[in-house]
Specification:
The complex is a heterotrimer of chains A (234), B (240) and C (57).
Chain A lengths: L8 H20 L1 H21 L10 H19 L2 H5 L2 H7 L4 H31 L8 H26 L5 H27 L6 H29 L3
Helix pairs in contact in A: 1-6, 2-3, 2-6, 3-6, 3-7, 3-8, 6-7, 7-8, 7-9, 8-9
Chain B lengths: L16 H25 L12 H29 L2 H33 L8 H21 L3 H33 L7 H4 L2 H44 L1
Chain C lengths: L4 H45 L8
Classes of the chains: A mainly alpha (234), B mainly alpha (240), C mainly alpha (57).
Chain lengths: 234, 240, 57
């Protein structure tokens, strides 16, 4: 039905908004570079925080990876509205006839992309740093978990960073709001990673955790769609 | 329950005052009856002995705190629809009480863990861990409230109450999935396996805690009503 | 006390302690309201005695 030039209006709006965020990021590179550096530093700290230099942390693979990624996500999600806030772009966007749900989806897609870039660095690095045993065979499964978890992080992250945007001390508020909601994602993603990494091929566990991530994403998608209009209602 | 802001009190009686009185009396009676029942009438558990008596109020409080969060979630939905400040009061007070109750769940659960296994905290007990997460989720509600004002505060609080209530079942389920293969679940749903003589006193305890929750909710709502009226008076005086 | 009954007592005591602390908090809130009401009623009384004073208020 729809040709390349005749997409429904909202897909064009969505693509435009995502392109705007990515182009801004490409120009400055401040968010993604900081996120990657933060993640690498956190991984380095982990080894010394958890044991001596000789300790084998293989059995913590999932936990190390997802604790690092969760904190990195807080950092990135907190930055995701900064352009809008600092340059008064948000006022313009809110006055424009773009549906709020499209704004939400655009932000969520941008967060998924940022997290994916960070994971391209973090997932191999975890394998190099911590895993003694087979790891690279199951990297496809880990990438799938990462993709699902990114969607979860992006949905709840967009909602909570929207709430934190106009609060006093918003840099402090966001982690306090966002991290408790991320606990189930960390549990499931770490559990799924644990189920396939380092030779433990427990596919039943893996499938259970992935289904849980899907359920999380669906539930938060419903909450976001139902409440997002009210976040920017002034 | 909330109604329009300009509601007149015809007989000079505050709406909700009668409800607070009635629920207060019911709560007082039920708490007394359940205390007597739990400690003097209910049979001693064969496995756990006297420690099992913590179960009656521990689980009752846990269930009531979930009811409180559900009330706050519904109040949030109504607030977003009607934008009536009354629903903000209901949500705020319900989460305050729910947080009080879930803190109590964590503390009594910790005492139970000490009595049963000799340590104050076990990460393999999904109930304790879940309620710790729930406490963290809803403690953040007050952090959020205190850092925004007026209309925005009502909307944000309502949205967070809804999103928080969505994360409660997710936390419940994720903690249980995690434990299913690391540790066997220590407490299974003890409700179904309970003999009738215990189940009766559990139901009475549950009703007692529910009545206590409703009574405290009504009392606090009357207080909120007074504060709101006072603010209107102060505003009117400033304008004269 | 034997068989862990001290733990049962402790759990029960904690519950009533925190619920009562909550009620004390409620009392503090209502004390603030009554203080403000008293201030307002004093203000009104003063206005009633000297109605022309109200210009700066």
């Amino acid at each position: 039905m729809s040709t390349a030039t005749n997409h429904p209006r909202w897909t064009r709006q969505l693509a435009g908004l995502v392109r705007k965020d990515l182009r801004l990021e490409l120009r400055t590179k401040e968010t993604v570079v900081a996120m990657v550096l933060f993640a690498v530093i956190t991984l380095t700290i982990m080894q010394f925080g958890f044991g001596t230099r000789d300790d084998d942390l293989t059995r913590f693979t999932g936990g190390l990876m997802w604790v690092t990624l969760a904190f990195t996500a807080v950092l990135g999600v907190g930055r995701s509205y900064v352009a809008e806030r600092e340059q008064r772009v948000l006022d313009g966007l809110l006055v424009s006839p773009i549906p709020r749900v499209v704004l939400l989806a655009a932000k969520a897609i941008a967060i998924v992309i940022y997290m994916a870039i960070v994971e391209v660095v973090v997932i191999p690095l975890v394998g190099i740093f911590f895993v003694k045993g087979p790891y690279w065979d199951s990297i496809g499964w880990i990438a799938l978990v990462a993709l699902l978890a990114n969607v979860c992080i992006a949905l709840s992250g967009t909602l909570f960073s929207g709430l934190a945007l106009f609060t006093r001390a918003r840099d402090l508020i966001l982690p306090v709001l966002f991290l408790p909601a991320l606990v189930p994602v960390v549990i499931a993603a770490a559990g799924a990673t644990h189920a396939v990494a380092a030779g433990a091929n427990d596919m039943a566990d893996y499938r259970g955790y992935c289904l849980f991530l899907v359920a999380y994403a669906i539930l938060f998608l419903l909450v976001c769609v139902a409440t997002y209009d009210a976040v920017f209602d002034d | 329950m909330p109604s329009s802001t300009t509601e007149k009190t015809r007989s000079g009686r505050v709406p909700g005052a009668r409800a607070a009185l009635i629920w207060g009396v019911i709560a007082a009676v039920l708490v007394t009856v359940s205390t007597i029942g739990v400690f003097l009438v209910a049979p001693e558990d064969a496995d756990q002995g006297v420690i099992q008596r913590i179960f009656y109020f521990h689980v009752a409080i846990a269930l009531v705190s979930l009811v409180a969060f559900a009330v706050a979630c519904v109040a949030g939905i109504f607030l977003l629809r009607t934008r009536s400040a009354r629903w903000d009061d209901v949500g705020d007070v319900a989460i305050r009480l729910g947080l009080l109750f879930s803190v109590l769940v964590v503390i009594t659960g910790s005492i139970w863990a000490k009595a049963s296994w000799g340590t104050w905290w076990v990460w393999s007990d999904p109930r304790l861990v879940t309620y710790l997460i729930v406490v963290l989720i809803y403690a953040a509600y007050f952090v959020l409230r205190s850092s925004v004002d007026d209309d925005r505060r009502m909307r944000y609080a309502a949205i967070y109450a809804i999103a928080g209530f969505a994360s409660v079942p997710l936390s419940f389920y994720s903690v249980r999935v995690a434990n299913s293969f690391v540790h066997p679940v220590v407490f299974t749903g003890s409700g179904a396996a309970m003999p009738g003589s215990m189940l009766i006193w559990f139901v009475v305890s549950l009703a007692a805690m529910l009545a206590l929750f409703i009574a405290l909710l009504e009392v606090e709502l009357i207080g909120r009503r007074a504060e709101r009226a006072l603010r209107r008076v102060a505003l009117a005086l400033e304008n004269t | 006390m034997t068989g862990g009954s001290q733990y049962v007592v402790a759990a029960y005591a904690v519950i009533w302690f925190l619920v009562l602390a909550y009620i004390v908090m409620l009392g503090a809130r209502s004390a603030r309201v009554s203080r403000q009401v008293e201030a307002i009623s004093r203000l009104l009384e003063r206005k009633g005695i000297a109605p022309d004073d109200g210009d700066d208020g």
